[in-house]
Amino acid sequence: MKEGLSLVQKLSGHPDSRCWFVSWSPNGTLLASCGGDKTIRIWGREGESWVCKSVLEDGHQRTVRKVSWSPCGNYLASASFDATTSIWKKKDNQDFESLTVLEGHENEVKCVAWAPSGNLLATCSRDKSVWVWEVDEEDEYECVTVLNSHTQDVKHVVWHPTQELLASASYDNNICLYKEDDDDWECRATLQGHTSTVWGLSFDAAGQRLASCSDDRSVKIWKDYSSGSGAGGDLSWKCVCTLSGFHGRTVYDVAWCRLTGALATACGDDGVRVFKEDETSDPDQPVFSLSAQVTKAHNQDVNCVNWNPKEAGLLASCSDDGEIAIWRFQEED
Amino acid sequence: MAADSTLLLSLVEEYVSGLQDSKAKDTATGIKDGQFTILQLVEALGLSLTSSQPHTRARGVQLLSEVLQECHEGLTEGEVEVLIAFFENRLKDHYVITPPVLQGLRALTKCTVLPPGSAVSMLRSLFQDVHVQSLMLTERSCVYKMLINLMESREAELKGLGADFVFGFLQSMDGERDPRNLLLAFQIANNIIHRGYDLGKFAEELFEVTSCYFPIDFTPPPNDPHGISKEELVQMLRNVLTGTPKFAEFLLPLIIEKLDSDVLSAKLDSLQTLTACVSQYEHKDLAEFLEGLWASLRREVFQTSSEKIESAGLDALTAITSCLSRSVLNSDSEDSLCTFLDLVLRDCKHHLSEPDLKLVWPSAKLLQAACSASNRASHIITAAVMPSLLEQYDNRTQCSHRRTILEVVQRFVQSVKTSQSAEKEESVFVAFRPSLCTMVFSALNENNSSLQKTATSVLTSLAQQPGLLLDSDIELAVDHLTKLLLAEEDEGVSLAVVECAGALAELYPEAFITKLIPRLKMEMFSDPIDQDNNRAVSEHQSHHAVCKRCLSALAAVSTQARIVHESTPVLLEVLSSAHTGSVGFSVDQVVLACRSLQRIAEKVQDTEETGRCFHDLVIPRLLSLSLQAALQGEESSGHRSPLLEESVLSAMVPVISTSCSRLQPALAEQTALKAVSLFLNGDVSSLPNNSFPSHIQLLKQQGDSWSQSQLVCLLMGCVCSLPRSVEVPQVEQLLSELEEMSCTCTHPLSYTSAAKCFAGLINKRPQGEDLDRLIQRTMKRVYTELDSASSSACTQAFTLLVWVAKALLLRYHPLSTTLTDKLFSLLDNADLGPMAAESFSLLMSDTTDLLNRGCHADVRIMYRQRFFSENSAKLVQGFNAAPQEKKTNYLKALSNIVNNLPKQVQISELPRLLSLLLEALSCPDQAVQLSTLSCLEPVLADPLPALIQQLEALINRLIALNSSPAMSVRIASLRCIHAVSHFPEHEILPFRARVLRALARPLDDKKRLVRTEAVRARGEWFLLGSPGGR
Amino acid sequence: MSGGTHLENANPVIFQRTGERLQTATEEDEDFHDPIDDREIFDMIRSINDPEHPLSLEELNVVEQIRVKVNDAESIVGIEFTPTIPHCSMATLIGLSIKVKLLRSLPNRFKIDVHITPGTHASEDAVNKQLADKERVAAALENSSLLEVVNQCLSTKSS
Is B1022 at the interface with chain A, CB within 8 A? Predict the structure, then answer.
């Protein structure tokens, strides 16, 4: 079978608006999307096609920038330009109800991410800060720390797949890694290398490596070289690979498939691309090659790519034209 | 009598105790009818007036007052005196009685028999006993109206009160807040000022009490029943404030203060008030405020946020300067004009010469505003700025800078022009004449089109300065213009040069006759196409362009009879050389030559002299040349005369019709006679170069040959534009031959022209049986042709029908209805339906070559409206009844009719037709779509309720037309969508998202013109409902 | 602008407005495909009002046709604009207005880059980076007071 990305379906996700972000539920059956129309939409499969199951309106006053599923799949967190983060709880049917609204950021919340344990939640904002919230059994949320390691707008936060390690990307061109030490969260490493805004981050399945993408039109792969697991010591991550020359404009998102290891990117040149690692290459100098690309995947900028966590090769992307696309990535046998 | 007094008592009783208001009217009627007198009424009221209840007393007085309002006219002086004394006395009574008392007094102020001294006594009581501002609105208004009435009738007595009257009024109006009452109060204040009442020591108080409303800030409530506008209040108050120089010392500082305001309308009002007041002032009133005023004006113009403010500021500066210019100089006083202009120059002059030309325009505008105020001002300013401007022009290297300087100079020259009226003074620019000429001529020679264009405007302005340019300057100017005409390729420059030549020719014909015309002629004829064909194509093309410019320049400079005498022969020579082939003029060039002749005919006013020129020279030559060409025929071997071409003949027709329509009666009659003799009798004696055969019959088609028959269009030009008083000879026979030709001839230009000529003559025939018979006879023939299925002359008959229908419709001829009804019935005809639908456009629109007022046709005003109102119902019925495939014809007819209606009629008729028009938008015929859109677009400017109800359908159809294959339809539909964006926001906001989405597509249209409209429309829809949008 | 407001640059140089684009025969031709060219883009932005002067960006020479580059086939538009003074605090706002005007006026296939003319502004890089960040632009346009100013810049003058 030939390698490639084939379109499964296009969905008119957020008409007359832009679709900023899509995210698969942990069991892979639902897809949440959000956008400039201030709504969140939940999509599910009906027969062969994907349809809108529910629309979460009235939760936010402005653009909903990102959404994040809790690891149990029963909660959804949404970050909005209205400076709030909403927590939604899934009801028995497909519907969601607003549980609580987290306030505290001075202005636009750009990203929200649930930690693998489900007990922690991270948010970041144009106010340059990253907040970590703790969740208790009564669904109460409490801010445990405010991290001010960036000098600019923080664009993205992402948790390590297994550890309580948090990474953030910023308009200041840097990536920061944070860990808890004695009840105190601290920035333990600053990854410098990109020459413009870093828009997206993604850990690989094992958490050994981190992919980042940037306005400088490149993707970088960072590898963990931290000695031992000493709680207090600084972390050491190094850039082992830079993918440049593939992207015509800003790379807005990068996603590492935890089932296949394929690396997908979303780009401002309207393209969706998938890279594969050359398995024979030196782990300290990995080589990634372009495995598939659709140059006109969307009519406008592609904002986000997300791999289905259960169904290998199923990829969702979304764009400024408000559309969501579902792709199937086929590998060579 | 006793019965009457019983009646009166019962009326009083019923009114006062019974509270029956209608009894007042009955009482008044009783007094008017002489049943009882007013004093008997007072007597009968006795009990009520002495009641211990204030409300009963008030009711009593109210009855009296209401009766007085009805019958104050019939009172005697004695009665009035008693009543005044009565009312004055009541003013001291309980406050509830005051309102009816004031009403009574107001009624009495309208009496013509007001006893001497009573006005003064009323006012004294009023001012003394009543605190006006504690009264209710209507009572206050009553007081103001009393004052106004008395000021009209008892001015002398009121003035006798001296300043007490002013004081009393001031106390009455101080604190007034109601806009209706303010209008009355301002009217009183205005009377006080303008009718010479003694202000005494109260000038400042009067100013205070009125100026506290300045600037007026008032927005009428929605659906204001009183119809008072802000503008009305502003104007009334302005009249008061600017009415007397006594206010100058208070008003000017107030204006300076208000100019600091952030409110745009306050600034504007202040500037306009300033302009108004200084026209009343003398220089000494202004003297101490000049610096402050200048500082404010300068700031407003330099930093203005709106063009309105700028122009109001400049007007104010002109007004101030002209006020100062009016001052008579005496040797010991300071010349305030000089002092003021020094200020202006100090702040503005240096901006004219700064290296980057910062602030050059606002400074120039200020200086020019001052310059235009008076001759003295213009001398002072030009002397100060011109040398530096001229010097800079030489020193600057950047074209854009030089052009700016030229433009500034141009504005200076123009600003002076307006101030020099009848005075025969020397131009203020005399001293700068040589340098100005040098500058203009050098700019004309620059290789930069915008510089050249600007230079032509400067040249025009300079030439229009009386007595400025010398003959030698003009000759040089003409040389430059000629050179540019011949050599300049840039179309914009050529146009500017031609325009400039026209303007100069009006003032200095000699130079154009002796230099320009001969040169152009030489140029046009010098260069026939080389027989060897070895000239480069580009050279040929450039010669064509030169010819084109020469032809258009000949028309432009023909501004007066003397020049016309020189230019028309050149143009005629173009035609004859083209005809003979001696010079190779193309058909296009011949058409252009005709156009130039037409422009001359239109432009030159109908003097005897030019009329003769056209009558004696131009028309005979045109006829003669065309006839020569026709006789040679279409198949003559070798050279084919361009004068056979339809386009050339069609261009000749307006030359002939325009000049004939302007002929003096005697010449007109001769023309008619000659033309008819030629066409009817083959009489060629009137034509020059007479070598024609003697048996020509122009109105008979010779076999298939059309070269002679088509000349009938020239006949039409001659006879259809003559004044109605001119008798067309042999008209019966002429009409009959025209009818024959129009029904039988197979050549389209020939039969159409014959039909038009027939119609043009019919339109002017006197009403009566002869005419009716003629029409009926002709129509019988036409109908027969139309009704016989096999007729080969169907189109011809139809053409005649339409033209005759138009001729009759224009003059409201009773038979027009049967003809137009025939046209309506043809809409259902399988073959003629589309033509019939199209014909309504001809019926309703103006035609340029005949049947218009310029051609002296009988055209009734509003014939279109009349036709429309008489026939729209038929059309709607016809549409509803017509089978589906014929409906298009009805829609097309409708859109052709509606499209030609005046906008006012469209708007009033639209609600009835809207559903039909919307239907027409969905009609697949592009012409219908286009004309419906163009008729909708102006109507959309003021959204009607009927339109708003159909918004959904309207928007859907407009959007659908955005993807029409015809770009004109796409453009028109986008313009309509643009217009809809100005509808009330709440009505269209629900459509915003849909429209924006729909408009995204035409942004990528393949035609730029479509994209441009889409960009405009989409921009407006984006602003809708968005902050800062609208 | 109120009389009392202090203008950053009270004395701007005023430049002549370009005339209307002259129509050509091909523009009237139904079948001819008129490419989107520099002048067409320039016509979209030249009449944008300056946020602090009652003048258009063209009259202030903030935008010039030579600093407009479009490639219709590749759907790319690049604009350089020149703030009137090197410390102009309105630079971001002007850039934003240009960007918004083009977003509203161009087919969405276009990628639009708006930059400051190199060397003409003290914070050139910072402004360019902000204008290129579509997330910030989107957020700015959800801010009603900012949107109000931008819309005013884009309104057609009524006087």
Answer: no
Model pLDDT for residues C42-67, shown as the tens digit of each residue: 999 999 998 887 788 988 889 988 89
Q: What's the maximum distance between 2 C-alpha atoms anywhere in chain C?
A: 56
Residues of C in contact with A81 (CB under 8 A): 138-139, 142
pLDDT (tens digit per residue) in A154-198: 999 999 999 999 999 999 999 999 998 877 899 999 999 999 999
In chain C, which residue's Cα lies nearest the Cα of B356?
C13
Give how many domains chain B has, as a whole number. 3
CA nearest to B885, candidates B913, B840, B925: B925
CB contact under 8 A, B1006 and C34: yes
Query: Which residues constitute the domain of residue A128?
Result: 4-227+234-330
Q: Which sequence spans correspond to the domains of chain C?
A: 32-154
On whether both B931 and B995 belong to a single domain, the answer is: yes
Interface test with B, best of A12, A14, A16, A62 (most B CBs within 10 A): A16
Q: Which long-range contacts (CB under 8 A, 24 or more apart) does A148-154 make?
A: A149/A176, A149/A178, A149/A187, A149/A190, A150/A174, A150/A176, A152/A128, A153/A110, A153/A125, A153/A126, A153/A128, A153/A197, A153/C133, A153/C136, A154/A110, A154/A111, A154/A124, A154/A125, A154/A126, A154/A128, A154/A129, A154/A130
Last residue of a domain, one of B108, B142, B165: B108
Range of the domain at B967: 918-1030
- For residue B984, what is the domain's CATH number? 1.25.10.10
- Are C139 and A126 in contact (CB < 8 Å)? yes
| CATH architecture classification, C32-154 | 2-Layer Sandwich (3.30)
Domain total for chain A?
A: 1
Q: Residues B974, B897: one domain? A: no
Which of B108, B136, B153 is the last residue before a domain boundary?
B108
Q: Is 0.90 topped by the overall pTM?
A: no
The C-alpha of C150 sits at a distance from chain B's nearest C-alpha, in angstroms, of: 8
Q: Rounded to a whole number, what is the distance in Å from the CA of A299 to chain C's nearest CA?
A: 6
- Count the Cβ atoms, other than its own, within 10 Å of residue A48: 7
Residues of A within 8 A of B997 (CB-CB) are 15-16
Interface check C31 vs A, CB under 8 A = no
Q: Are B145 and B181 in contact (CB under 8 A)?
A: no
Q: Which chains touch A (3 or more CB pairs under 8 A)?
A: B, C
pLDDT, tens only, B149-171:
999 998 998 898 888 899 999 99
Using a CB–CB cutoff of 8 Å, tell me whether A16 touches chain B: yes
CB contact under 8 A, C111 and A108: no
- The ipTM is 0.93
**Residues in B touching A15 (Cβ below 8 Å):** 997
Tell me, yes or no, whether B319 lies in a domain. Answer: no
